[in-house]
Structure formats: structure tokens, C-alpha cells
Design goal:
Elements: H1 4-8, E1 17-20, E2 25-29, E3 35-43, E4 46-54, H2 62-77, H3 82-109, H4 114-135, H5 139-150, H6 156-170, H7 182-185, H8 198-211, E5 215-217, E6 223-225, H9 232-253
Antiparallel strand pairs: 1-2, 2-3, 3-4, 5-6
Helix pairs in contact: 3-4, 6-8, 6-9, 8-9
Length: about 250
């Protein structure tokens, strides 16, 4: 079992080597002397490794590593992969920073009237940023929902029903027929989206409705092309509605 004295006395060698502690935890010592706590475990028949942290100044102590090990073992008892949870936490932080930076850059460069800029910033500050900053976008829930959608297969009839409802969400005037058909918005733009799982159907529908460029006919029969959704508030509402539609179908099929 490791002690602080033993850790301080670990000397680098020409190759990485291990020194074991207890309960599956050990440290690796790199050729430059970096000591890192790790934990190996098996979950669902797969071997995984969790990096707990670096030992020493600017890192974590032996007692902190053992506390993190205890948390990881509790997660394993619930069937949760601590290594995957750590990766998801990193992605949450990156997503928040990326979104904030992108929004700031967009407002700097967007050619908008002052009133339009103020209105859109108000929508983002009120409805979007709180979700990212305070609730971290429910990242884990979204990830789990996406994985569940990928595991949910639709037959052609169910895909057509999804597309029909999606058209009604985009073109909600009951007196005017939609300018495009269900089969058009189900056409894949990428090879990977040719599958009939719910996630692929959702992606095809979402891209075709928001990006435009589909051959269409107006109510009086004139040929035209659908336009991309440009307004950020319209885009948000449509994407939210399509997501709720997909998640609702996932729950019905589950």
C-alpha cells in the first residue's frame, strides 16, 4: 500500500512503470517523473481505466485520490462507467466555453439593426445561455436520449408519420399545403444518415427543413426552392419542436 513518503521517493526510469496501492488503484511513473493515480476496472465485460489525477503540487494528494476512487467504485455499483462520466464532464465544459465564444463572435460580426440585435440577444440571454451555464444543457440527459434514439428503429410507415408531423410543425397554416413532401424531407444528405434509426430520421428531417434548398411548389403551383431558416429565434423554436417530437416517439417506441 502506498504512503506519501513512498510516493515522494518514486524515481523515474527509462520506461513508464507502476506502483500499486489498494482496491485497484495504482500510480504510473513517467520517464520525466510525473506520478499519476489510475484505477483499472471491468464493466459490462470491458476493461476500462480511469485517470484520477496527478500527484504533487498542482495536482491531488493520496487521500484525495482515495476519495475519488471511492466515488468511482460507487458509480460502478450503479452500473455507471466513471471513465465515461469524466469524459462527459469535460465535454460539458468545452461545450459551454465554445457556445459562449461563438455567441460573442456572432454578435460582433452580425450585420443587424440595433433593435434586431437587442431582440436576439435578449432571447439568447433569457432562453439559451441559462441552460448552458446553469444547467449545463442537461448534457448527460441529451447524450442518453441520443443513444436511445440511435437504438430505436423505425419502419417506413413510422418514418413517414414522423415526417408528416415535422412538416406540420414547419408549415403550420392549415389552409396552405406544405410546399415539399414527406419523402423529400426524409432524403439523406449524408451517407451515414441513410439508416432507419430514429436519430438518423430526426437528423435528415431537421437538416432538410432548416437548411432549405429542396425543390418545391407554391400553393398556386409555381416552382421554387425552400429557403434556409435564417432567424435564430425561428431556428431555435423549430429545432426544439423537432427534438420534442423525436423524444416523444422514442418514449412511445420504448
Amino acid at each position: 500500500m502506498l504512503t506519501d513518503t513512498a510516493l515522494r521517493n518514486l524515481k523515474p526510469k527509462s520506461r513508464v512503470y507502476k506502483a500499486t496501492d489498494r482496491d485497484g488503484m495504482y500510480v504510473t511513473v513517467s520517464p520525466v517523473g510525473t506520478v499519476t493515480f489510475r484505477f483499472d476496472y471491468r464493466l459490462h465485460g470491458r476493461r476500462e481505466t480511469l485517470t484520477l489525477g496527478r500527484y504533487g503540487q498542482g495536482g491531488i494528494s493520496l487521500s484525495m485520490a482515495r476519495e475519488l476512487l471511492l466515488d468511482a467504485r460507487k458509480s460502478l455499483l450503479k452500473g455507471i462507467s466513471p471513465a465515461l462520466e469524466k469524459q462527459r464532464e469535460k465535454r460539458r465544459v468545452i461545450a459551454i466555453k465554445t457556445f459562449d465564444t461563438a455567441m460573442d463572435a456572432w454578435f460582433v460580426n452580425a450585420k443587424l439593426a440595433d433593435s434586431t440585435r437587442a431582440m436576439r440577444k435578449h432571447i439568447i440571454d433569457r432562453d439559451i445561455l441559462p441552460v448552458f451555464r446553469n444547467r449545463l444543457l442537461g448534457f448527460d440527459e441529451l447524450q442518453q436520449a441520443r443513444e436511445a434514439m440511435q437504438a430505436t428503429n423505425l419502419d417506413e410507415g413510422e418514418a413517414s408519420v414522423f415526417a408528416r408531423v415535422a412538416l406540420a410543425l414547419k408549415y403550420d397554416d392549415p389552409l396552405k399545403p406544405a410546399p415539399v413532401t414527406e419523402s423529400q424531407i426524409l432524403m439523406p444528405r449524408r451517407f451515414d444518415d441513410r439508416r432507419l434509426d430514429l436519430w438518423s430520421v430526426f437528423n435528415r428531417t431537421q437538416e432538410n427543413l432548416t437548411q432549405g434548398g429542396l425543390r418545391a411548389r407554391s400553393a398556386n403551383g409555381r416552382r421554387l426552392q425552400t429557403r434556409a431558416v435564417q432567424g435564430i429565434d425561428q431556428n431555435i423554436r423549430l429545432n426544439r419542436a423537432l427534438w420534442l417530437l423525436a423524444d416523444g416517439m422514442r418514449q412511445l417506441k420504448g
